[in-house]
Amino acid sequence: MPTIDELRNLLGEDSVSVAKDDLDAHAGDWSPRLLLDRRRGTDLSPPVAVVRPGAAAEVGRLLSWAHDTRTAIVPFGGGSSVVEGISGHDHVVADMGRLDHISPLDAKSRLVTVGAGVTGPQLRDALAPGGFMLGHEPQSHDISTVGGWIATRACGQLSACYGGIENLVAGLEAVLPGGRVVRSRPAPRRATGPELTDLMLGSEGVLGIITEVTLRISPIPAERAHACVRFDHMGTASRPAARSRNPICNRPLCASTTARMPSCSR
Fold first, then answer.
1. Which neighbouring-strand residues pair with 219?
2. Tens of pLDDT along 180-206?
Protein backbone atom coordinates (compact mmCIF):
# COMPACT_ATOMS: atom_id res chain seq x y z
CA MET A 1 0.00 0.00 0.00
CA PRO A 2 1.60 3.30 -1.09
CA THR A 3 1.91 6.08 1.44
CA ILE A 4 0.69 9.56 0.56
CA ASP A 5 3.70 11.19 2.22
CA GLU A 6 6.04 9.34 -0.14
CA LEU A 7 4.09 10.57 -3.16
CA ARG A 8 4.08 14.15 -1.88
CA ASN A 9 7.82 14.02 -1.33
CA LEU A 10 8.24 12.81 -4.90
CA LEU A 11 5.94 15.20 -6.72
CA GLY A 12 5.07 18.01 -4.34
CA GLU A 13 2.08 18.69 -2.11
CA ASP A 14 -0.08 20.23 -4.86
CA SER A 15 0.42 17.32 -7.27
CA VAL A 16 -1.11 14.65 -5.03
CA SER A 17 -4.80 14.44 -4.22
CA VAL A 18 -6.70 12.17 -1.84
CA ALA A 19 -9.94 14.17 -1.94
CA LYS A 20 -12.94 11.83 -2.13
CA ASP A 21 -14.48 13.60 -5.15
CA ASP A 22 -11.19 13.34 -7.00
CA LEU A 23 -10.74 9.66 -6.18
CA ASP A 24 -14.31 8.88 -7.22
CA ALA A 25 -13.91 10.77 -10.50
CA HIS A 26 -10.88 8.61 -11.34
CA ALA A 27 -12.38 5.30 -10.20
CA GLY A 28 -13.90 4.34 -13.54
CA ASP A 29 -14.43 5.21 -17.18
CA TRP A 30 -17.39 5.30 -19.58
CA SER A 31 -17.72 1.54 -19.89
CA PRO A 32 -21.35 0.35 -19.74
CA ARG A 33 -21.01 -1.75 -16.59
CA LEU A 34 -19.38 1.04 -14.60
CA LEU A 35 -21.94 3.58 -15.79
CA LEU A 36 -24.70 1.26 -14.58
CA ASP A 37 -22.89 0.75 -11.28
CA ARG A 38 -22.74 4.52 -10.80
CA ARG A 39 -26.47 4.83 -11.45
CA ARG A 40 -27.17 2.12 -8.89
CA GLY A 41 -24.97 3.84 -6.36
CA THR A 42 -22.55 0.91 -6.29
CA ASP A 43 -19.15 1.81 -4.88
CA LEU A 44 -16.37 1.46 -7.42
CA SER A 45 -12.77 0.68 -6.55
CA PRO A 46 -11.17 4.12 -6.18
CA PRO A 47 -7.42 4.69 -6.39
CA VAL A 48 -5.37 5.31 -3.27
CA ALA A 49 -4.37 8.69 -4.69
CA VAL A 50 -4.52 10.78 -7.84
CA VAL A 51 -1.23 12.36 -8.88
CA ARG A 52 -0.75 15.02 -11.54
CA PRO A 53 2.81 15.08 -12.87
CA GLY A 54 3.83 18.19 -14.76
CA ALA A 55 6.83 16.89 -16.71
CA ALA A 56 8.39 13.70 -18.02
CA ALA A 57 10.98 13.84 -15.23
CA GLU A 58 8.20 13.71 -12.63
CA VAL A 59 6.61 10.74 -14.39
CA GLY A 60 10.04 9.12 -14.29
CA ARG A 61 10.34 9.61 -10.53
CA LEU A 62 6.83 8.25 -10.07
CA LEU A 63 7.47 5.08 -12.09
CA SER A 64 10.83 4.53 -10.44
CA TRP A 65 9.13 4.71 -7.04
CA ALA A 66 6.33 2.44 -8.25
CA HIS A 67 8.86 -0.12 -9.44
CA ASP A 68 10.60 -0.14 -6.05
CA THR A 69 7.36 -0.33 -4.04
CA ARG A 70 5.51 -2.67 -6.46
CA THR A 71 2.67 -0.17 -6.79
CA ALA A 72 0.33 -0.23 -9.79
CA ILE A 73 0.16 3.05 -11.73
CA VAL A 74 -2.81 3.68 -14.02
CA PRO A 75 -2.36 6.48 -16.60
CA PHE A 76 -5.46 8.66 -17.01
CA GLY A 77 -6.15 10.90 -20.00
CA GLY A 78 -9.75 11.99 -20.39
CA GLY A 79 -11.33 8.92 -18.80
CA SER A 80 -13.26 8.22 -22.00
CA SER A 81 -12.37 4.54 -22.30
CA VAL A 82 -15.27 2.10 -22.62
CA VAL A 83 -13.41 -1.10 -21.66
CA GLU A 84 -12.83 -0.58 -17.92
CA GLY A 85 -9.23 0.33 -18.63
CA ILE A 86 -8.69 2.27 -15.39
CA SER A 87 -9.98 -0.23 -12.86
CA GLY A 88 -7.51 -1.44 -10.24
CA HIS A 89 -6.83 -2.27 -6.61
CA ASP A 90 -4.59 -0.30 -4.24
CA HIS A 91 -3.42 1.62 -7.30
CA VAL A 92 -2.38 5.20 -8.00
CA VAL A 93 -3.88 7.09 -10.94
CA ALA A 94 -1.54 9.38 -12.87
CA ASP A 95 -3.73 12.10 -14.38
CA MET A 96 -1.84 13.52 -17.36
CA GLY A 97 -3.89 16.70 -17.64
CA ARG A 98 -1.02 19.01 -16.64
CA LEU A 99 1.00 17.88 -19.66
CA ASP A 100 -1.00 20.21 -21.90
CA HIS A 101 1.75 22.19 -23.63
CA ILE A 102 1.56 22.83 -27.38
CA SER A 103 4.67 23.96 -29.23
CA PRO A 104 4.59 26.45 -32.12
CA LEU A 105 3.66 24.43 -35.19
CA ASP A 106 6.19 23.83 -37.95
CA ALA A 107 4.21 24.83 -41.04
CA LYS A 108 6.98 23.85 -43.45
CA SER A 109 7.33 20.30 -42.12
CA ARG A 110 3.67 20.17 -41.07
CA LEU A 111 4.52 19.00 -37.57
CA VAL A 112 3.44 20.04 -34.09
CA THR A 113 4.67 18.75 -30.73
CA VAL A 114 2.18 18.52 -27.88
CA GLY A 115 1.90 17.13 -24.37
CA ALA A 116 0.06 13.87 -23.84
CA GLY A 117 -2.63 15.63 -21.80
CA VAL A 118 -3.77 17.92 -24.63
CA THR A 119 -7.43 17.38 -25.48
CA GLY A 120 -9.02 17.31 -28.91
CA PRO A 121 -10.56 20.80 -28.63
CA GLN A 122 -7.29 22.27 -27.30
CA LEU A 123 -5.36 20.90 -30.26
CA ARG A 124 -8.00 21.95 -32.78
CA ASP A 125 -8.07 25.51 -31.44
CA ALA A 126 -4.27 25.74 -31.47
CA LEU A 127 -3.92 24.55 -35.08
CA ALA A 128 -6.85 26.37 -36.69
CA PRO A 129 -5.39 29.92 -36.67
CA GLY A 130 -2.46 28.65 -38.78
CA GLY A 131 -4.82 26.96 -41.23
CA PHE A 132 -4.07 23.41 -40.08
CA MET A 133 -5.89 20.45 -38.55
CA LEU A 134 -4.88 16.99 -37.34
CA GLY A 135 -7.50 15.03 -39.26
CA HIS A 136 -8.25 12.81 -36.29
CA GLU A 137 -11.80 12.92 -34.94
CA PRO A 138 -12.76 9.92 -32.80
CA GLN A 139 -16.20 9.98 -31.22
CA SER A 140 -14.53 10.91 -27.94
CA HIS A 141 -12.70 13.86 -29.54
CA ASP A 142 -14.00 16.50 -27.13
CA ILE A 143 -13.27 14.51 -23.94
CA SER A 144 -10.17 12.50 -24.80
CA THR A 145 -6.46 13.28 -24.99
CA VAL A 146 -3.61 12.87 -27.45
CA GLY A 147 -1.86 10.40 -25.14
CA GLY A 148 -5.02 8.35 -24.89
CA TRP A 149 -5.41 8.26 -28.68
CA ILE A 150 -1.95 6.75 -29.03
CA ALA A 151 -2.26 4.36 -26.10
CA THR A 152 -5.48 2.96 -27.60
CA ARG A 153 -4.42 3.19 -31.28
CA ALA A 154 -7.49 5.27 -32.00
CA CYS A 155 -9.26 6.02 -35.26
CA GLY A 156 -12.22 8.20 -36.13
CA GLN A 157 -14.57 9.60 -38.72
CA LEU A 158 -11.77 11.10 -40.85
CA SER A 159 -9.40 8.13 -40.64
CA ALA A 160 -10.43 6.84 -44.07
CA CYS A 161 -8.66 9.89 -45.52
CA TYR A 162 -6.00 10.93 -43.03
CA GLY A 163 -5.34 7.54 -41.47
CA GLY A 164 -5.61 6.32 -37.91
CA ILE A 165 -3.53 7.90 -35.17
CA GLU A 166 -0.67 5.53 -36.07
CA ASN A 167 -0.34 7.35 -39.41
CA LEU A 168 -0.24 10.76 -37.74
CA VAL A 169 2.50 10.17 -35.15
CA ALA A 170 5.95 11.33 -36.27
CA GLY A 171 7.69 10.77 -32.92
CA LEU A 172 7.02 10.57 -29.21
CA GLU A 173 8.44 10.66 -25.72
CA ALA A 174 7.54 8.06 -23.11
CA VAL A 175 8.59 6.91 -19.67
CA LEU A 176 9.23 3.20 -19.23
CA PRO A 177 8.55 1.15 -16.08
CA GLY A 178 11.47 1.91 -13.80
CA GLY A 179 11.51 5.58 -14.77
CA ARG A 180 13.68 5.74 -17.88
CA VAL A 181 12.66 8.50 -20.33
CA VAL A 182 12.94 7.45 -24.00
CA ARG A 183 12.33 9.45 -27.17
CA SER A 184 11.56 8.62 -30.77
CA ARG A 185 12.63 11.63 -32.84
CA PRO A 186 10.57 12.72 -35.87
CA ALA A 187 11.86 11.23 -39.11
CA PRO A 188 10.25 10.39 -42.47
CA ARG A 189 11.17 6.73 -42.10
CA ARG A 190 13.35 4.41 -40.01
CA ALA A 191 14.89 0.99 -40.55
CA THR A 192 16.93 0.58 -37.37
CA GLY A 193 15.15 -2.20 -35.55
CA PRO A 194 12.12 -2.10 -33.25
CA GLU A 195 10.55 1.35 -33.28
CA LEU A 196 9.48 2.97 -30.01
CA THR A 197 6.42 4.58 -31.59
CA ASP A 198 5.16 1.24 -32.92
CA LEU A 199 5.59 -0.36 -29.50
CA MET A 200 3.66 2.38 -27.68
CA LEU A 201 0.79 2.52 -30.15
CA GLY A 202 -2.08 0.53 -28.66
CA SER A 203 -0.05 -0.43 -25.59
CA GLU A 204 -2.81 0.76 -23.19
CA GLY A 205 -0.24 2.01 -20.67
CA VAL A 206 1.30 -1.43 -20.17
CA LEU A 207 4.72 -0.65 -21.66
CA GLY A 208 5.04 2.87 -20.30
CA ILE A 209 3.42 6.29 -20.05
CA ILE A 210 3.37 8.57 -23.09
CA THR A 211 4.32 12.15 -22.15
CA GLU A 212 4.81 14.03 -25.44
CA VAL A 213 3.98 13.48 -29.11
CA THR A 214 5.00 15.01 -32.42
CA LEU A 215 2.08 14.86 -34.86
CA ARG A 216 1.71 15.23 -38.61
CA ILE A 217 -0.84 17.91 -39.46
CA SER A 218 -2.71 18.83 -42.66
CA PRO A 219 -4.17 22.02 -44.15
CA ILE A 220 -7.80 22.68 -43.33
CA PRO A 221 -9.82 21.94 -46.50
CA ALA A 222 -11.48 24.87 -48.21
CA GLU A 223 -14.86 23.15 -47.90
CA ARG A 224 -16.24 20.32 -45.84
CA ALA A 225 -19.39 18.43 -46.82
CA HIS A 226 -21.38 15.96 -44.74
CA ALA A 227 -23.57 13.27 -46.28
CA CYS A 228 -25.37 10.11 -45.24
CA VAL A 229 -26.09 7.33 -47.75
CA ARG A 230 -28.44 4.48 -46.92
CA PHE A 231 -28.16 0.97 -48.40
CA ASP A 232 -30.57 -1.90 -47.94
CA HIS A 233 -27.83 -4.55 -47.73
CA MET A 234 -24.14 -4.66 -46.79
CA GLY A 235 -23.29 -6.22 -50.15
CA THR A 236 -24.73 -3.33 -52.13
CA ALA A 237 -22.80 -0.86 -49.97
CA SER A 238 -19.40 -2.51 -50.40
CA ARG A 239 -19.24 -2.14 -54.18
CA PRO A 240 -19.58 1.68 -54.39
CA ALA A 241 -17.31 2.01 -51.36
CA ALA A 242 -14.59 0.07 -53.18
CA ARG A 243 -15.02 2.17 -56.34
CA SER A 244 -14.68 5.41 -54.34
CA ARG A 245 -11.08 4.80 -53.32
CA ASN A 246 -8.75 7.65 -54.17
CA PRO A 247 -5.96 6.32 -56.45
CA ILE A 248 -3.58 9.06 -55.30
CA CYS A 249 -3.59 8.37 -51.57
CA ASN A 250 -5.16 4.88 -51.76
CA ARG A 251 -7.83 5.90 -49.29
CA PRO A 252 -11.55 6.62 -49.73
CA LEU A 253 -12.29 10.20 -50.68
CA CYS A 254 -13.22 12.41 -47.76
CA ALA A 255 -15.75 14.31 -49.84
CA SER A 256 -17.26 14.25 -53.31
CA THR A 257 -14.21 15.78 -55.00
CA THR A 258 -10.50 15.97 -54.31
CA ALA A 259 -10.72 19.73 -54.75
CA ARG A 260 -12.76 19.97 -51.58
CA MET A 261 -10.30 17.92 -49.57
CA PRO A 262 -6.90 18.61 -51.16
CA SER A 263 -4.96 17.14 -48.27
CA CYS A 264 -6.32 13.67 -49.16
CA SER A 265 -3.83 13.50 -52.00
CA ARG A 266 -0.74 14.49 -50.00
1. 132
2. 999 998 877 777 777 888 999 999 999
Q: Are 142 and 120 in contact (CB under 8 A)?
A: yes
Alpha-carbon distance 34 to 13, whole Å? 30
Show the low-confidence residues of the chain (pLDDT under 70): 1-2, 241-266
HSE, side-chain direction, 13 A CA sphere, residue 85: 18
- Ramachandran bin of 194, using left for φ above 0, alpha for ψ from -120 to 50, beta for the remaining angles: beta
CATH numbers and ranges of domains, the chain: 4-95 (3.30.43.10), 111-219 (3.30.465.10), 234-265 (no CATH)
Torsion of CA 10, 13, 15, 20, to 10 degrees: 120
pTM listed for this prediction? 0.83
